[in-house]
Amino acid sequence: MTVLFRLITIFRVFARYRLDQLLPNQPRSWRARLALLPFKLFPTPKMNAGERLRRSCEDLGPVFVKFGQLLSTRPDLVPGDIVLELNHLQDNVAPFDKHLFKALVEKALEAPVETLFASFEEDPLASASIAQVHGAVLKNGQPVVIKIIRPGIEKTIADDMQLLALVARLVEKHTQDGRRLRPVEIVRDYRNTIFDELDLQREASNASQLRRNFATSTSLYIPEIFWDYCRKNILVMERIYGIPVTDIAALEAQQTNMKRLAERGVEIFFTQVFEHNFFHADMHPGNIFVSREHPQLPQYIAVDMAIVGSLTREDQYYLARNLLAMFRRDYLQVAELHIQSGWVPADTHIGELESAIRSVCEPIFEKPLRDISFGHVLLNLFQTARRFNMEVQPQLILLQKTLLNIEGMGRQLYPDLNLWETAHPYLERWIEKRFHPMTLWKELQRYAPEWLEKFPQVPHMVFDSLQQSRELGGVIPELQRLREQLDDNQRNQQRQSRRNVIALLAFSGAAILAWPGLHGTLAPWVGNLSWSELPGSVYLLLGIGAGALLLRK
Fold it and tell me: Phi-psi region for residue 397, left (φ > 0), alpha (ψ -120 to 50) or beta?
């Protein structure tokens, strides 16, 4: 009954905000039309489509808030105006009881709070859809934050995921655009993402990796993780006191170099993607702060590393070359790279793909470079490729969303940010470095132990391959002889069929000539030939003999 009541609640909220109007085309199935009929009893709210979807997620609680955030990461499937509205979803959830929070900490760490921490703040610093955060101080005087997963959230998520999966299947089955929007795939991706976020040890390991990657950097700071206090449902990390990146007034008050700050954001992104191949994939403004130190050489501080991304070496290479080719307006190379990378099928007509890419990109490049959105160019490129059956590349969509966040944040900090001017030389250097002899030497050093370990097996593998080839070589002549025999049989059957037809004609002709009525009719056509006067039985015997002779051959 609980699931039924929850389903009724979801249906009522969807109807109140008339989410049925978000479907591009009305469903054709009578069942779907009947299910959507109650929606028409509600007036259409005076809001745009994106705001209605955002508010419905907020009304339905944490799971739907996170789902709305996930939808905002899929601009390949969701219209741009809705994506912009969903980006405004904030983790503004009512906190759960502070005494329960304390009890959960003590249960996870198996000790009283008073023995674990020098001080503990009972009022939360932040309350999100998945977790809640409180401040504390370790016994050694280190300020920290304690993050705890909301109690009972796993069951809530599991129940809501079942309902979301049901709705997705109905939409995909009974609406015209269901297959194109792929709601089942979106819900499946969301399930994986949200259950990953429930594991705070995973988030802690992500933070540790990022901190190690930027250990010597003056551009990005990652807070320290205190592993002795981390469990699957609890995370303790260094407390930071930076300025929220959206607080422009505070940044300007300390005379922050906004141009340098914006450029450093771009550099951090490309360093994570191409140098480290491990990028923070949830860099929305709520997770980014700016250090109060060295405002002329500003440093970012990042938190909440639950979602990270990485690319294969092939995707790294093809993505970099795609971006450079777009910058040079070499659309043929962009099309070739899409095919070479496997992003579109190998049988794609390269000329048509090149033309489609040109028609999308050329109007954009007529603008000044500082007015061109790098992220939207990439978005348009992927949307165009989808017309040619490009498979959705989750890692590229995640990267694209991160780039859109970084670029949007950079332009907010410094409106004249020229992302191309920053990115182009970086990509050129990366391509050059990738094929530098020193890089190749490092690759050799990295994989040499593995190659040496496998080298003794090489002679055996070569011998086995030769043996298999020899055995296969003995089979091939037999297959060839069998093929020739089959061809001979087929030719014999064809000849026999032709003889059968001719024999049939001989029998038929003899029978016709043996028929007295026709014999008299045909006699004028043969003139005075003596054989035309022969009895019909003679013609019949001659026809039978000719037919038999043909069949014998």
Answer: alpha
Name the pTM for this structure.
0.67
**Residue 470 within a domain:** no
In a domain, 476, yes or no: no
Residue 262 assigned as binding residue: no
Task: Indicate if the pLDDT at residue 32 is higher than 70.
Answer: no
Residues 174 and 237 in one domain: no
pLDDT in tens, 75-94: 656 777 787 787 777 555 67
CA dihedral 344, 345, 347, 352 (to 10 degrees): -20
Q: Is 219 annotated as a binding residue?
A: no
Displacement of CA 378 from its chain's centroid (Å): 14
Residue 218 structure tokens: 């003056």
Q: What is the pLDDT of residues 33-67, one digit of tens each?
A: 666 667 777 788 888 888 888 888 888 877 788 77
* Domain endpoint, select from 139, 166, 195: 195
Helix (H) or strand (E) holding 418: none
Where a domain ends, among 308, 328, 349? 308
Q: What is the dihedral of CA 301, 303, 307, 311, to 10 degrees?
A: 20
- Whether residues 503 and 539 share a domain: the answer is yes
Cα 156 to Cα 62, 92, 247, 432: the distances in Å are 9, 18, 34, 50
Q: How far apart are CA 240 and CA 303, in angstroms?
A: 9
Q: How many domains does the chain have?
A: 4
* Among candidate residues 59, 22, 66, 19, the one with its CA nearest the CA of residue 42: 19
Instruction: Consult the annotation and say whether 53 binds a ligand.
Output: no
| Distances 412 to 242, 245, 259, 267, 479 between C-alpha atoms, Å | 18, 9, 11, 16, 71
Q: Can you give the CATH number for the domain in which 298 is found? A: 1.10.510.10
Domain that holds residue 542: 483-552
- Please check whether residue 84 is in contact with residue 64, taking contact to mean a CB–CB distance below 8 angstroms: no
Measured CA to CA in angstroms, residue 326 lies from 134, 191, 369, 381, 476 at distances of: 47, 35, 12, 10, 49
Instruction: Retrieve residue 494's tokens.
Output: 């064809």
Exactly one of 160, 282, 304, 315 is catalytic; name it.
Answer: 282
User: What gap in Å lies between CA 428 and CA 436, rounded to an integer?
Assistant: 12
The kind and range of the H/E element at 372 are none
Among candidates 282, 539, 269, which has minimal Cα distance to 423?
Answer: 269
What average pLDDT does the structure give for the chain?
Answer: 76
Per residue in 261-272, pLDDT tens? Answer: 988 988 898 899
Do 294 and 189 share a structural domain? no
User: What H or E segment, with its residue span, contains residue 236?
Assistant: strand 234-238
Please say if 282 is a catalytic residue: yes
472 is in an annotated binding site: no
Q: Is 49 annotated among the ligand-binding residues? A: no
Torsion of CA 512, 515, 521, 527, to 10 degrees: 80
CA angle at residue 320 from 410 to 85, to 5 degrees? 40
Structural element, H or E, at residue 209: helix 200-213
